[in-house]
Amino acid sequence: MAATAIDHIPAETACPGGCRYEPKWDGFRALAIVNEDGGVRLWSRRLKSFNDAFPEVVLAVFDALPAGTVVDGEIVRWGRDGRLDFAALQRRHVASRRRRDLALAEPCHYVVFDLLETGGTDYRPRPLTERRQALERLLADVPDGSLIVLCPQMRDVGEARLWFEILPAQGIEGLVVKAADGRYREGKRGWWKVKHRATTEAIIGGVTGSIAVPQTLILGRYERGGRLRVVGRTSPLPPSASHSLAALLTAAGDDHPWPSVLPAGWAGGLPGAETSTSYARVLPSVVAEISVDAAVEHGRWRHSVRYVRARPDLTPGDVPEGLDLE
C-alpha cells in the first residue's frame, strides 16, 4: 500500500474513523513473508529479494514471527549518532562480498507497521485499528534487544505535530497518516505522507538544459576547506522561474571547480543507479533559496530540492557551509 504526498498534517477528523500518525522512515520498504514451513522472504516494493543483503533481519523475522505471517515495514539502519543512516543501507545492498561482515558490524532493524496475514486470517480487509491490535499482540513477546521493532503510532494531532518538528534531527523524514477505519489495499494509494521541509540557501553552480533555458539547477555549498561541492539538484523549474534565472546566470570557463560532466550520483539519485549528468557550468555567484527535506547522504540532499526564488541580496559567503540549515 502506498501514500500520497500532502503539504500539511491533517486533523484527527480528516480520516474515516480518525487519523493515526506514524513516523516516515528513511529506509528500504519491505514485506516480510514467513511461509507455512517457517521459511522467510524479504521482498522490496519491486519484488526483489532482500534476503542476501540483510541476513540478520531474516533471522530476526524467523525468531519473532510465526509461520503463515505477512507483515509490512521498513528496513532501517541507525548510525552511532542516533540518526538513520541511509548510506549504510546502500552499502549493505551493493557490497555482496562484505554483506556477512557488515551484518555483524552494522546490523539493521526492521520496523513493522502493518499486519497482512497471520494464523490463517487475512487482515487486509480489516480496519487499521484491528490490524494494529493484532500486530501489537503478535509482537508483545519480542525482546527489547530484537532487530524487530514495532512502529510507534499516535492518535493526537498535537503530539504528531511535535513529532514532526523533532524527528528530522534523527533522520526521520516526516509522518505517514492513515485512516483508523482504512483497509490495507495492496498497490493502491490510501495513506498520506507529510515530509518535513526546511528553507535554506545554496549556490547555483550549473544548470541542465541551457543557460538560456535552464531546466534544473545544480547546487553547491562551500566546505570549511574552501572547496565548492555539489549538494543537490532541483526538481524541474517552472517556466517563469527558468526565464527569470536566465537573466542572472553567466557561463563559466574551464576554471570552474566542477568537472564538465558530473559522475553518476553527484547530482541526485542513488550512485550507480543513473548515468552521468551533462550540464552547463555557470559562475557560482548567484544564490538560490530552496526547500529541502531531511534525507541526506554523502554530504548531499538525496531527493530533489525545490527552487523557491533567487536571492540577489545574498552573496555566496552568506550561504551556510556543508548541509547546515542555519
UniProtKB/TrEMBL annotation:
The signal sequence is none
State the Pfam families in the record. DNA_ligase_A_M
Catalytic activity as recorded in UniProt: ATP + (deoxyribonucleotide)n-3'-hydroxyl + 5'-phospho-(deoxyribonucleotide)m = (deoxyribonucleotide)n+m + AMP + diphosphate
PROSITE patterns attached to this UniProt entry: DNA_LIGASE_A1, DNA_LIGASE_A3
**This protein's UniProt keywords:** Ligase
Q: Name one GO molecular function term.
A: ATP binding
* Top-level class of the enzyme under EC nomenclature: ligase
User: What EC number(s) does the entry state?
Assistant: 6.5.1.1
Report the record's Gene Ontology biological process terms.
Answer: DNA recombination; DNA repair
SUPFAM superfamilies reported for this sequence: DNA ligase/mRNA capping enzyme, catalytic domain
Question: What InterPro entries does its record include?
Answer: Adenylation_LigC-like, ATP-dep_DNA_ligase, DNA_ligase_ATP-dep_cent, DNA_ligase_ATP-dep_CS, NA-bd_OB-fold, OBF_LigC-like
Q: Specify the ATP-dependent DNA ligase family profile domain's residue ranges.
A: 110-228
Q: Which Gene3D superfamilies match?
A: DNA ligase/mRNA capping enzyme, Nucleic acid-binding proteins
Q: Which family does it belong to?
A: Belongs to the ATP-dependent DNA ligase family.
Q: What PANTHER family does the record point to?
A: DNA LIGASE 1, DNA LIGASE 1/3 FAMILY MEMBER
Q: What is this protein called?
A: ATP-dependent DNA ligase LigC
Question: In the record, what lineage is assigned to the organism producing the protein?
Answer: Bacteria, Bacillati, Actinomycetota, Actinomycetes, Streptosporangiales
